[in-house]
Known about the structure:
Layout: H1 8-30, H2 100-108, H3 112-124, H4 131-140, H5 147-154, H6 160-171, H7 177-190, H8 196-204, H9 210-221, H10 226-238, H11 246-254, H12 260-273, H13 276-289, H14 295-306, H15 308-311, H16 318-334, H17 339-345, H18 352-358, H19 365-377, H20 381-393, H21 400-405, H22 412-425, H23 431-436, H24 445-458, H25 464-472, H26 476-480, H27 482-494
Helix pairs in contact: 1-11, 1-13, 1-16, 1-18, 2-3, 3-5, 4-5, 5-7, 6-7, 7-9, 8-9, 9-11, 10-11, 10-12, 11-13, 12-13, 12-14, 13-16, 14-16, 16-18, 17-18, 19-20, 20-22, 22-24, 24-27, 25-27
Amino acid sequence: MWADAGSARTLLLAALALAAAVMVGSIALVAFKDDGKGSTSGGDAGSPLGRGPGGGHRGAGASGGHASGTRSEDDEDDDDKTVPEYVSRVPDGPDLTWTPEDLRAAMTVKHWEEVCRLIETLQAGGTTIPEDVVRQLLAMLAKDDLRGDAQQALGFVNDEATGRLLTDLAASRDASIETRQAALDALRRSGVKSALPGLQALIAAPDTPPEVARHAYLAIGAIESPEATRSLLSELTSRPGDDDLRGVIVTALGNTKNGDTPLAQFGRSARERGDRAGVIAVAQVAMYQGANAGPETRAELTRMVESPETSLAAFKDDEDRLRMQGTAMPAAVAAGIIEPVLRAAQTSGPMRDIALNALRQARGDAAAKQIAAALKTNTDEAQRRELTVALGETASKVATPTLVSLLDDESSNIRHAAARGLSQIRDPAAVKPLLSHLDKASPDSAFGRNLVEALGTIGVNDALPALKKLEESEEDFWVQLRPWIRLAINRITTGNPESQRLDSNIAK
Length: 508
């Protein structure tokens, strides 16, 4: 980064802010960034039984199929089990009527996608999932070969009684750790509110194993209730900074809904007490929530960024106060608070470099418009380069015209950043301008490489003729870039913009 020569103090603060951002990313990985909310309902194409959750048609078919199964005289020598018989739907067939018997039949043949679809469909129609089905699924959680499927299905059951049964199983000392974890993961999917008291008791119990508590925290985070957020904040307060479960709690808080008020109150209390760990925790949670951060939490972040002298007055040491302000900046940007951080990024104050780095967390059209407007008036090369990087990170097509114009900037560093930004946005509208700059790339190999990579990542076939011509060129400049050219061609022809493989048909 092209920063002015500054004091060691400024560099230290920048490093600290960067470390905080990296720590948030690490927490997300350690604590299962996947939100556990994957749904198997998405139309019938993937259904093994050719039926979807929203009704449909039962085919007339030669067999006249029934969800509960039919038998012919030829089947009499088979065993006594009734085998469900399914038929494909046809466009002009009668409307399907779903019943619990259909669900039991799908479970008999272990069509798990259909089980999940039927659970959703029955509940949407006001039918409670039968107790015998729920208990059968609960029993399957103890079996290694069925646990994953049963957990997925139970995650779709949204009645309060099932929530309490899952909580009881998660708290059972007689169940295996794996069974208890599966029960908690099902609750994480369903978010049933009746589970909260049992989950609170589970995490409060001193003999709860850490590997169970980890899943319990994430299950609490999925419950849409201010009380769930308060429970997690209480746990966060009671654990020291080096506790390996602290990151899981932060991740769970990042997934909470309807918890804006208690989170903001926690942050306000922390900064008024000069509680460094509390302020950092709120910033981490807000960073995780991003655009989903609530208005009260956003207001707290804005105070810390805009008015550190008053909002962070409890931190008597200047270094501490600046450090807390710097910690709040990336979280503020992730939450959509751009203007005050953008203003700090264009000054010569001690927070400039931290603010410039924080702007890389900006996403969306609104942020892109503000950063693009700042680039039009800013004349400092170092700041413009960092703003160009941040503009690409927004992943907004609103940024495309500005980045295209910066391909002709006098600064090679800004040209490089602009080409790189276009590869992140992947806007087909940038292909023609990128192609027109290929002839201007020599002798700047870094610029040429970024142009080629952008074309490959955007993945428009119109770029193939020019790239193939460059791949065959014997000009020394393009020969050195041939591996990147081949990679770009492969990405376009395979439709995989993340591919790292050279096309075997042309690689030498």
